[in-house]
Structure formats: C-alpha cells, structure tokens
Amino acid sequence: MEYIFLAIALVILFWAVTVYNKLVALIEAVLNSEKEISVQLDRRGKVFDSLISTVNRFLEHESEVFTKVTALRAQTIDPNASPEAIKKAEGELSNMVSSGAINIAVESYPELKSDRNMMQLQEEIVSTENKLTFAKKAYNNAIERYQVTKKSFPNIMVVNIFSDLNQEFEYWSLDETTIKTEEARRVQF
User: Whole-angstrom distance between the N-terminal and C-terminal Cα of the chain?
Assistant: First the structure.
C-alpha cells in the first residue's frame, strides 16, 4: 500500500513539474514574441527611412537629368542656335546616352532608375508590414496558448500553488484613436 501512495505521489510530482516547465516555456514564448514586435517596429523605421531617402535622391537626380535632357533637346532644335551650340548640345546628349545615364528608345522618353526603386520601396513596405503583422499574430497566439494551458484543469492547481506562473498579458491591439490614426497614415515623399 505504501508503494502505491509513493507511486501516486511521484506521478503527481512528475505531472506538476511537467506543467510548471510547460507554463514557464509558454511565458518565455510570450515575452519573446513581444520582443519580436519591437524588433520589427525598429526594422520598419530604419528600412523605411533608408529606402525613402534613397528613392528621394534618385528622384532628385532623375529630375535633374530630365531637365538637362529637355534643355539639350531644345537647343538641338532651336532655329536661332548657332551650329556650334547645336553640335555641343548633341554631343552632350550623346555622352549621356553612351555613359548609361539614360536609355533612349527612338523618340521615347528617357528611361531612368526611379521606377525600379519605387517598386522596391513598395515591395519592402509590404514585406515589412507583413513581418510586423506576423510578429503581432505570433504574440497573440503565444498569449492564447499560455492562457489556455494556465486555465485548463488540472493545470490551474499548479498555477494556484506557484503564483509566479499566474501572469497576465494583454493581447496586441490598438485603441480606437490609434486605429484611426494608423488607417490614415501613408508614406509621404
């Protein structure tokens, strides 16, 4: 009889240790998921600032190139320009094309690089927002797993014995004011 009580006590002890360790692991998963949101928010700020700055520089450069190309083309067809001025303008246009600064199809607009940069920026914005969304979702899922495990019977008995296992976490959500602000938020150049 004594062995039966000892065996039951060992099973209960083993079960309690297992539940305790599982709850500790779930608490750590919640904390880690919360930190991942911070990492993604930090990444978003840095990536967006960097990409927007890069795209703005390309846009400024391309604006300058378009202005210069337009001025040079106007000089080449100006009936009042001297032959030397026309020849010089045509030479500068040729240098721009041969240097790879612009690609010109016959009588088309010059093709520049900002369109690719804008596409990359759009893709990075979507990718970053997706990563942030996944991090928030993982955080809420980690809280849900912890809450379900903690409140399940007979696990709740272990939680009642070890109060440090009874932690409260708030699901990731936004208040109404922040939701309205975020819905109106757009990337500005």
Answer: 80
